[in-house]
Amino acid sequence: MENVSIIGCGTMGHSIALSAAWAGLTVNVYGVNEKDLENADKGLRSKLKVMIDNEVFTESTAEQIKGSIKLSTSLEETIEQSTFIIEVIPEVLDLKKEMYKKIESIVSKEVVIASNTSGFKPSLLAEEMQYPNRFIVTHFWNPGHLIPLVEVVKGEHTDEQTIERAMQVMRDMNKQPILLNKEIPGFIGNRLQYALFREAQSLLDAGVATKEDIDAAVTYSIGRRLPVTGPLMTADMGGLDVFSAISNYLFEDLSTDLKSGKELTKLVEENKFGDKSGEGFYTWDTDFSEQKNAEREQTLIHFLKNDLTRNEGKK
After folding, report:
1. End-to-end alpha carbon distance in the chain
2. Domains of the chain by range and CATH?
3. How far apart are CA 165 and CA 113, in angstroms?
4. What's the alpha-carbon Rg for the chain, to the nearest Å?
5. What pTM did the predictor assign?
6. pLDDT (tens digit per residue) in 118-175
């Protein structure tokens, strides 16, 4: 197995570390300062408690996981023994490029450097690197310890060995990696997610239905199918002749907006950002926020348990 280090210990960083440690890896995690490390430690303990409470694993396993994660404010100490590094710092291009320069000054050219970016093309991120052949994107989805998907995106200069090692590390972490043959903005998941979000905004702006009913149209229909069948398999099961006919008459009426919808733009201008500000499309008081976040976490844990059972059955 690779010796994994994670650069950045925010929400995604410590969640990815939890996944790696749960899979049996010893993980070194870098944080900018002691406050970052304290927040990461608090986040880890909270997530581990939820997993114990939901009987995903025992307290003994949680202690082993926690003991396999080493937090540090020293970049050199974090990565000096690494063979595979995952960068999980803010989505600021210059900040990432500067971090890669620091990393390359410490590690050998055989060490893989991966980024958790959700949007930047790998070729852009690696354009100032000494060895861009060892650079790749591994985009985890939030929450990183509960969502199986990792989008693996190769750049213009990424070599085959780097791709193979990245895919294997993700499998070792019990993730479901998918490989993009082309680097495109937003990769696959976000392009699909925002296609749905664009249409939802358009329906709301046009007054077709309330926000509650638009959301319900997803959660009580396609949302129930998507955990089992994606859009292409769903079409196969429904009949490609039917889906082709509907595509031919419906596509021309779907939203082609190139910017955020009117209601979303208005909310952002009013500093109404959703859960983090207390108001967005919905009103997020403390009780509502805790309820909805807990519901989502419980549902994700339900599917995670199903995955674990299914994977055990394959062994």
Report:
1. 19
2. 4-180 (3.40.50.720), 189-258 (1.10.1040.10)
3. 11
4. 21
5. 0.93
6. 989 999 999 999 999 999 999 999 999 999 999 999 999 999 999 999 999 999 999 9
